[in-house]
Design brief:
Blueprint: H1 11-26, H2 33-49, H3 51-62, H4 66-92, E1 95-97, E2 106-114, E3 117-121, H5 129-140, E4 144-148, H6 154-167, E5 173-175, H7 180-187, E6 193-197, H8 200-211, E7 217-220, E8 226-229, H9 237-248, E9 262-266, H10 270-285, H11 301-312, E10 320-322, E11 326-327, E12 332-333, E13 336-339, E14 356-362, H12 367-373, E15 380-384, H13 388-397, E16 402-405, E17 419-420, E18 426-427, E19 429-430, H14 433-438, E20 440-448, H15 463-474, H16 477-484
Parallel strand pairs: 3-4, 3-6, 4-5, 6-7, 8-9, 8-15, 9-14, 13-14, 15-16
Antiparallel strand pairs: 1-2, 2-20, 7-18, 10-13, 11-12, 17-19
Length: 488
C-alpha cells in the first residue's frame, strides 16, 4: 500500500507504517549502493516520462504556467537526480582525516551512514520539486522514507502517490496523502529525521513534535526577502527590473519562499524604478494581467482573502502605484507595486507570499542594511549594484539563508551551494551533497593496532607519567622531550 488517501491515517496505522519501514531498514537493503542508485534512477524516470501529467497537475493546483513547471520543477528535479547519480559513490566513500600525536600510531575516517526512517513534509507552492528533491537526499544517504505531500495541491499529491507507487521500492519509500489529521498522526511517531518545507507557524509545530523524541529536523521556511536597488552605481535598470520581475511574478506569482518580498531604494530613485517596473510588467503580462496565461493564480480563497487584507490596510491602500486589480472568482491578483509603504504596516510585518511588492525608501542606500537587520533574518537577500564596497558590506553585514548580487532567486539552481535558512527562516540546508549530508550521520572511526601500547595511560600514575601525559595532550614535541628527561 503506497498511499493512505482512502481513509484517514490513524495514529495506529502510522505506527504500523513506520514499523514496516524500520524492518526494511534493519534488513540493510537501503544501505547498498545498488539500491540507492536504482531508486535515484527511478526518480529521474518519473520526471522524464511524466512531464505532461506533472504540468497538468500543477496547472490544476495553482494555475502554474507550463514553462515554470518544466523549468523550475521538472528540470531542477532531473538535475538534482543526475547530480546524485553521478556523485553518489564519492559521497558514500569514507573521508580520510589526519590523527593526532595522542593516538599515534593510528588512522581515522569519517563514515557517512543513513539515519534510518525519515519523514518529508512538503509544500504546495512547488509541490513536485519540493516533495521529491529532499527525497533524493534521503535515498542517496540510504534511508527509508515517508513523503507527505501538501493537501493544498491535491492533484499533485495524488499524482505523486501514483507515480511513487509505480516506480519506487514500496518496502522502503511510501507516500501518505491527507491533511491535518494525517500529518498529526505522522508527527506522533518517532522518526530519525523530519524534513519540513512551509511556514514558520507549522514549522514550530513540527519542531515541538520532533523534540518529544529528540528527532533532528530540517526546516525550510521563508521570510521577508529584501531587494536593495542602488541608485548611485549606474546599474542597468532594465536588466535589474526584469530580474526582479522574474524572481517575483515569474516564480509562481510571488508564491515562493525566496521571491522578493520588498524593495529598498532611495527616495530620489524610487520613481524611476517604479516607471521601469511598470514598463517591463506591461511588456511581460500585457495591459490586462488578470487575463495573462503567464501568471499563476492564487492557490485558494483563504490566501486570496489574506492578500486582500494586506492591500485593504488603511496604511497601504493609498500607496498602490501599479496594479491592485483582483478577480475573486478566478483567484487572480495582478502584479501590484506599492510605493513608500510604512514599515509598521501589516504588509511589512509578515511574509507576503503573493503578487504584491512594496517599495520602502531611504535617504541613503547604506540605510537599507539597518532596515533589513531590524527584522528577522530572511531566507534570501538581493542587491543590485556596481559598487564593490557596497557588495562587500552587503555580504559582511546581512545575515540571510543566501545572498545574490545583481539577480534574484537563481542561487536555488546551484547545487554546490547550500540552500536553507537561518534564524526564523529555517534550520539546516540541502541541495547537492548538502542533501546527502542532511540525511546522514557522520560517524567517527579510529583504527589502531596492538602495536605502540603506551604504559603512561595506566596506573600507577607517577610524576613522569603525569608530565608526559600533559605534554602528549598538548601535542608539543619539545614538551614530550622535556618530560622524558624529567624536566617540567
Amino acid at each position: 500500500m503506497t498511499t493512505q488517501s482512502e481513509n484517514t491515517l490513524t495514529v495506529e496505522a502510522a505506527s504500523t507504517l513506520v514499523n514496516e519501514l524500520r524492518a526494511t531498514f534493519a534488513s540493510g537493503e537501503t544501505r547498498s549502493y545498488k539500491w540507492r542508485i536504482s531508486q535515484l534512477k527511478q526518480l529521474y524516470k518519473i520526471a522524464e516520462h511524466h512531464e505532461q501529467e506533472i504540468v497538468d497537475a500543477l496547472l490544476s493546483d495553482v494555475g502554474k504556467p507550463p514553462l515554470e513547471t518544466v523549468a523550475y520543477e521538472i528540470a531542477m528535479l532531473k538535475n538534482s537526480s543526475k547530480t546524485a547519480i553521478k556523485e553518489l559513490k564519492r559521497w558514500m566513500a569514507p573521508e580520510k582525516v589526519p590523527t593526532s600525536l595522542t593516538t599515534f600510531p593510528a588512522s581515522a575516517e569519517i563514515v557517512s551512514e543513513p539515519l534510518g526512517v525519515v519523514l518529508v513534509i512538503s509544500a504546495w507552492n512547488y509541490p513536485f520539486l519540493l516533495s521529491l528533491d529532499p527525497v533524493i537526499g534521503a535515498i542517496a544517504a540510504g534511508n527509508a522514507v515517508v513523503l507527505k505531500p501538501s493537501e493544498i495541491a491535491p492533484a499533485t499529491s495524488a499524482l505523486l502517490a501514483k507515480l511513487v507507487g509505480e516506480y519506487m521500492d514500496n518496502s522502503s519509500i511510501r507516500v501518505v496523502e491527507g491533511a491535518v489529521d494525517e500529518t498529526s498522526a505522522l508527527l506522533q511517531q518517532k522518526w530519525d529525521k523530519i524534513f519540513y518545507t512551509g511556514n514558520g507557524r507549522v514549522g514550530r509545530i513540527v519542531m515541538a513534535a520532533a523534540a518529544k523524541h529528540l528527532t533532528p529536523v530540517v526546516l525550510e521556511l521563508g521570510g521577508k526577502s529584501p531587494v536593495v536597488v542602488d541608485s548611485k552605481s549606474n546599474i542597468n535598470l532594465q536588466v535589474t527590473t526584469r530580474r526582479i520581475i522574474a524572481g517575483k511574478w515569474g516564480c509562481n506569482n510571488g508564491q515562493a519562499c525566496i521571491s522578493p518580498d520588498y524593495i529598498i531604494t532611495t527616495k530620489d530613485y524610487a520613481p524611476k524604478l517604479v516607471d521601469a517596473l511598470k514598463t517591463e510588467l506591461e511588456s511581460f503580462y500585457g495591459k490586462n494581467p488578470l487575463e495573462s496565461k503567464d501568471l499563476s493564480r492564487i492557490v485558494n480563497s483563504n490566501h486570496f482573502a489574506r492578500l486582500t487584507k494586506l492591500l485593504d490596510d488603511d496604511k497601504v491602500s493609498g500607496k498602490i502605484v501599479h496594479g491592485g486589480e483582483k478577480d475573486e472568482t478566478k483567484l487572480r491578483i495582478s502584479p501590484t507595486l506599492l510605493l513608500d509603504v510604512p514599515r509598521d504596516s501589516l504588509i511589512m510585518s509578515e511574509e507576503i507570499f503573493g503578487p504584491l511588492l512594496p517599495i520602502v525608501t531611504v535617504d541613503k542606500i547604506e540605510e537599507s542594511f539597518d532596515v533589513i537587520n531590524s527584522g528577522p533574518k530572511p531566507l534570501a537577500a538581493y542587491i543590485f549594484t556596481n559598487n564593490k564596497n557596497l557588495k562587500e558590506k552587503f555580504v559582511k553585514t546581512i545575515s540571510a539563508g543566501g545572498l545574490v548580487i545583481n539577480d534574484t532567486t537563481i542561487h536555488l539552481a546551484v547545487h554546490t551551494l547550500p540552500f536553507g535558512g537561518v534564524g526564523d527562516s529555517g534550520v539546516g540546508a540541502y541541495h547537492g551533497k548538502f542533501s546527502f549530508d542532511a540525511f546522514s550521520h557522520k560517524k567517527a572511526v579510529l583504527y589502531r593496532s596492538f602495536f605502540g601500547d603506551a604504559s603512561i595511560r595506566y596506573p600507577p600514575y607517577t610524576k613522569t607519567k603525569y608530565r608526559l601525559m600533559k605534554a602528549l595532550m598538548t601535542g608539543s614535541i619539545i614538551g614530550i622531550i622535556r618530560a622524558i628527561f624529567g624536566k617540567s
